[in-house]
Design goal:
5 helices, rod-shaped, about 300 residues, 5-stranded mixed sheet, 8 strands, Ubiquitin-like (UB roll), 3-stranded antiparallel sheet
Length: about 300
């Protein structure tokens, strides 16, 4: 207890005792330990009750009374205090009551320091918990963002799949329509072929009958049947045998619009170019004939 009272004003009195320091509180430290670490005042450096001298040294940084200059040097090495002076005041020994009061004060200081340390530790724990929770929240937000990103990818993939399906169906539908149009065209061509064959046969029959009837007759008129595409009714018109093919073109233009050409039904031959200036007789369309309108 005397040691605690005497050292109660030391700057490091409230510091925890290092684990490597041996001995109980108030017991003298072995010379080997003191010399090795210089963490304690050497025995005899600090003046005890009844040992004060008028020429003792005082540390002006902490107020500790030291026996001599060697003790002051060791104290300076331990505490890094540098201000010392000779003391001419003898230290009055403390009474038992004063010692008890000093001890109580020291205990209170130690208790206050422990309480402050407990509060600091509690604040550190709160801060650590806050950091941990914040890290957990950040992790949750990262997971939520990743899930949202994956959901967007799924939605976009569904949209692409739906669009690809729509385009595929449109392509199939277009192909079906094209096939249907191709079949209609072939059917129309087949029908036109049958009609042309029938007309040719009729013309042949007429020619054969004319040959059997006697000398060839000179015809001044001809009856032309002009077949139109798209299933329209054929046009029948009488022309002069001497009329040119261009006159037939002019007549057909009065019944339809757009570009077109005339062709024989059998054999199939397009009549244009230099044929426009030939007469219907020269084109063997007298006394009757069949022509077809083509827009190809």
């Amino acid at each position: 207890m005397d040691w605690l009272v005497e050292h109660s004003e030391d700057a490091d009195i409230d510091d925890p005792i290092p684990e490597h320091v041996g001995g109980a509180l108030g017991t003298a430290t072995s010379p080997s330990t003191a010399e090795a670490g210089d963490s304690e005042e050497k025995e005899g450096d600090v003046i005890q009750d009844g040992e004060q001298t008028p020429q003792s040294l005082v540390c002006q940084d902490c107020g500790m009374l030291l026996r001599n200059s060697d003790a002051a040097q060791r104290h300076a090495m331990r505490t890094e205090h540098v201000n010392f002076a000779e003391s001419t005041t003898a230290i009055k020994p403390l009474t038992e009551e004063e010692k008890q009061a000093k001890l109580v004060e020291l205990k209170e200081r130690l208790a206050e320091k422990r309480a402050a340390k407990a509060i600091a530790d509690k604040e550190d724990q709160k801060m650590s918990e806050k950091i941990r929770r914040k890290a957990g929240q950040d992790l949750t937000e990262v997971k939520a963002k990743l899930e949202e990103k994956e959901m967007k990818k799924l939605v976009e993939a569904k949209k692409r799949e739906k669009e690809e399906d729509r385009l595929a169906k449109a392509a199939i539908k277009a192909r079906i329509e094209a096939d249907k149009a191709e079949r209609a065209r072939k059917k129309q061509e087949a029908t036109a072929g049958h009609q042309q064959a029938a007309a040719a046969q009729a013309a042949a029959n007429v020619a054969e009958a004319a040959a059997k009837a006697g000398p060839a007759k000179v015809y001044t008129e001809t009856r032309l049947q002009i077949r139109q595409p798209e299933g329209q009714q054929p046009i029948v018109q009488v022309f002069q045998a001497s009329d040119k093919l261009s006159a037939v073109y002019d007549f057909v233009r009065t019944h339809r619009q757009g570009e077109f050409k005339l062709m024989t039904t059998f054999p199939r031959k397009v009549l244009d170019g230099e044929n426009l200036e030939k007469s219907l007789t020269e084109l063997q369309l007298v006394p009757s004939g069949a022509l077809a309108v083509t827009t190809n």
